[in-house]
Design goal:
The structure is a single chain. The chain is α/β, with parallel strands linked by helices. The protein has 14 helices and 17 strands. A seven-stranded mixed sheet has the order 4-10-9-8-7-5-6, sandwiched between helices. It has a four-stranded antiparallel sheet with strand order 13-14-17-16, covered by helices on one side. The protein has a two-stranded antiparallel ribbon with strand order 1-2. The N terminus is likely disordered.
């Protein structure tokens, strides 16, 4: 995997000074130094800050030691987790943070006057700053917490799209996209009488850049792009595509759900107008994610959901809204999720991000060569710029049969349409099997995958 669209990342510098006073080893009983003989996940130093620029280097073995679930068995075999495109497994630091928050720091945020409310609020806003730093965003106020990428995209569609789109406007959507980056635009296009225009793929799984350039016009109001494909692993030239879209005054939304765990991201370098990601794809909890938007755009957007927390004042005569980003965070947020997400970012950025990316690139190349040993196996999308997503078919076996066989060997892969039916249809398919790699996967696990597939063919 190479990363032509990311430079100047803050990812490897560490997240410093972001721990709330109420969530440190010194003040929270649940955040003491790890007890190696204790129950995993109930003790730990999950949110203790480290010095700026600190890095542990990287090895997959070090990462694996931190992830308890990787040491369980499934069907009597050691678990091999190759379903990272669906969700990543969680390091003990994240698990411990969640337990410690509920054990010693649980409170609602923003409106309480007591000590724990202040501490929880400080932690929550420190999490916002951590996400901003992780993405290279200009300020914490440009970050909105959401339930994940899907909700973030819907927020942009309904809040920005209702005012920003109109009859005759074009929304360019590559065939490569996840359903979460297709369907919201179909819905808002129907509401605004805009038009969703698909951008075709080349046979290798890359976006047809000539077709993209031809489809751009003065009618183009929005371009949406996945920073990395969940079904083919394709990493498009996002920076170049964004620059071209901006020549036509179009906005660009980048779906970073599959990208952020694999390589550093700098939203200002990309010049993205919107950038989204999900916590559970980057070793954090489910139910938490983030939307970055350029501050000048965010200021123009009206609330999407309404209720508590997003208001400044309410009366039956007139209601005014809170400043950004709070006007987009109605109700009680996923407070523990923010704590867990901050812990996940701390864990990931403690490793040398370049070393992680290099390792994953080497592992993917090894996996491609190893899978070539399986007679008849067809690996989709041989594009050069990609992350470790290996989607394939095997003659004589349905994707579900493949996944069931592998599960019997303790190997978890995904089977189905992967919420990317147009991309699979490009290859004449309605389903495929998918093995997706992460920093804690190893060559030995790839070898077991290949051996199991050969066993399936021989059965």
């Amino acid at each position: 995997m190479t990363t032509p669209d990311v430079t100047g990342s803050t990812g490897s510098t560490g997240l410093t000074g972001l721990t709330a006073p109420g969530l440190t080893a010194a003040t929270a009983p649940g955040l003491t130094a790890p007890d190696p003989n204790g129950v995993p996940g109930l003790t730990g130093q999950a949110m203790t800050p480290r010095p700026s620029g600190a890095s542990q280097g990287f090895s997959p073995e070090a990462a694996r030691r931190d992830v308890p679930i990787l040491h369980r068995t499934v069907n009597g075999r050691p678990l091999i987790w190759l379903d990272n495109g669906a969700t990543t497994q969680k390091p003990r630091q994240v698990i411990e943070t969640l337990a410690a928050f509920y054990a010693s720091a649980n409170s609602n945020i923003h409106r309480g006057a007591h000590t724990m409310a202040r501490e929880a609020t400080e932690m929550y806003e420190a999490g916002r700053a951590a996400v901003a730093q992780f993405l290279g965003a200009p300020a914490p106020e440009s970050i909105v917490f959401t339930r994940g990428t899907t909700e973030a995209i819907n927020l942009v569609a309904q809040s920005w799209g209702r005012a920003g789109l109109g009859p005759g406007d074009d929304i360019l959507v590559p065939v490569l996209e996840h359903h979460a980056n297709i369907v919201p635009w179909q819905l808002i296009a129907k509401q605004t009488r805009a038009r969703v225009v698909p951008v075709p793929l080349r046979p290798d799984g890359s976006i047809d850049q000539d077709a993209y350039a031809d489809l751009l016009s003065v009618r183009t109001r929005l371009v949406v792009i996945s920073h990395a494909s969940n079904v083919l692993g394709t990493v498009p030239p996002v920076r170049e595509m964004t620059a071209l879209a901006h020549r036509y005054q179009a906005k660009v939304l980048v779906d970073g759900a599959q990208a952020v765990a694999h390589f550093p991201v700098d939203v200002q370098d990309l010049d993205a107008d919107f950038y989204t990601f999900s916590g559970h794809k980057i070793y954090g909890p489910t139910g938490i994610g983030a939307l970055y938007a350029k501050p000048e755009i965010l200021q123009t957007m009206a609330p999407w959901q309404s209720g508590g927390n997003m208001i400044e004042s309410v009366s039956f005569d007139r209601t005014t809204y809170a400043p950004v980003p709070h006007r987009f965070e109605a109700g009680t947020g996923h407070i523990s999720g923010v704590a867990g997400l901050m812990s996940a970012l701390n864990w990931l950025t403690a490793f040398d991000r370049k070393a992680v990316a290099d390792y994953e690139t080497q592992l993917m190349a090894y996996a491609q060569q190893a899978l070539a040993q399986v007679p008849g196996l067809d690996l989709l999308g041989p594009v050069a710029e990609r992350i470790g997503v290996l989607t394939f078919t095997l003659p004589g076996h349905t994707p579900t049969e493949i996944a069931d066989w592998l599960d019997g060997e303790g190997i978890a892969v995904r089977a189905g349409h992967h919420c990317a039916q147009p991309a699979l249809a490009h290859y004449g398919l309605d389903a495929a099997a998918r093995a997706s790699l992460a920093l804690y996967n190893t060559r030995e696990e790839v070898d077991r995958l290949v051996t199991s597939l050969l066993g399936l063919q021989a059965a």
